[in-house]
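Form 7-S
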Amino acid sequence: MTSAHPTPSDTAKSPRRGHGSGIALLVIASCQLMVVLDITIVNIALPHIQSSLGFSTENLSWVVNAYTLTFGGLLLLGGRLGDILGRRRVFVCGVLLFVVASLLGGLSQESWQLLAARSLQGVGGAIASPTALSLITTTFREGPERNRAFGVFAAVSAGGSAIGLLAGGLLVEWLDWRWVLYVNIPIGLLIALATPRYIRESERMPGHFDLLGALTSTVGMVLLVYGFIRASEEGWSDGPTLAAFGAAVVFLAAFILVERRSKQPITPLWMFRDRNRAGVYAIMLSLAAAMFGMFFFLTLFVQNVLGFSPLRAGLAFLPVSAIIALGAGFASQLLPRWGPKPFMTAGAILSAAGLGWLTLTEVHSTYAGSILGPMLVFGFGMGLNFVSLTLMAVSGVAPQEAGAASGILNATQQVGGSLGLSVLVTVYGTASRNEATDQVRRFMAEATDAQRSEFRRTGALPSPWSDQVLTSGISTAFIVAAVFAVLAALVALLVIQVRPGDLERLQGNDTR
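Output:
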């Protein structure tokens, strides 16, 4: 593993200590919060978006996917842009692009306009997010100072999803669905104005942009996710489903070939030769899949089964943000003494336990009795993991490689979330269809004549039969989500090896 130490030029370019460095961290963390928050803030607004812009139920999921797929697919290129063009410059450009896309999305009058704006938001986020993480490595000295900065960054990254659900509920209930996009405008403009004042520019690295690598990876991931989503609706024998999977394999194989032959790839494959870094990426991939699934399905459950309003649904997820921040703070304080492996392992086990608890969810479950407890267990585990994974992924990376290392870490989180959610949706679809067969039979035996007539007209089961279908599918999906977390725990236990040099860097005592 290459050692990364502050050089004289690095030290010279460090921001002012004290008040200045605190504001620098606030600026970087605010950007990450804005970018991560946007993944979930629209979830609660989806029914209002559907009625306003005329989305079909099938196409509505692309309001989320258009953002996460471009975001995850281009993160690697975004990190490379910062390395070559200067991280502060690229950071500001990414934030401003995100602001413009948010404005266009809020002004959308047609469904395609919103999808285009959401895709553009993903591009802006893919530029800003990895650059923000790289700025931490070049702004804060390795050791306790950087550990604290990474702790804040990890807490924001992990808690942003829950905060987005809360913010979405507030904005939809009090204002309008368009404000889940408009809210980014003042935040982004403040970040862009503060960045030149409190963050110094990094040195520009020589190199070129691997556009072909970015294209093949993004298209491949879009096709793979599309294949899973279509399989949940049309089945695994559907022709377009199989074609999507086949094309995804071709594009992803082409991506690997491009990266192996490129002199300056966006994904340096040699980074995966390091046992710890490869393990970190695998853990992040699995945990992100579990986390995206938990938020998605619990949002459906609390609104459609428990009958929560958008605001109340948002408030229901607020404890998750607090417990994730608590877990991240706890881990950042003790990491220098114990190293990251215990926190990775314990965090993944706690996450798996929380998801396993959620598999017991049923129609008569309550928020306080069946949802809050598992969420807190899961959230604390994720807090332990995010700060540990972030530190290990960039530990010992040379300054010219920080963008690539952080880009891969962010990409595995977003791609893992998108892929995992598509897999869980497929599991949910299969389980809910099987349950629907039983519930239709019960409905026809128990319903009134008026209810049967309405069902023949619409084909939609009314409550409580529909609630049973939804809950059965969700509890089954949580079983697979728990398996993802168990896999992460096994990787942490069997793959990660903390060496003496890693602990020295975490303590700020590395003198090589």
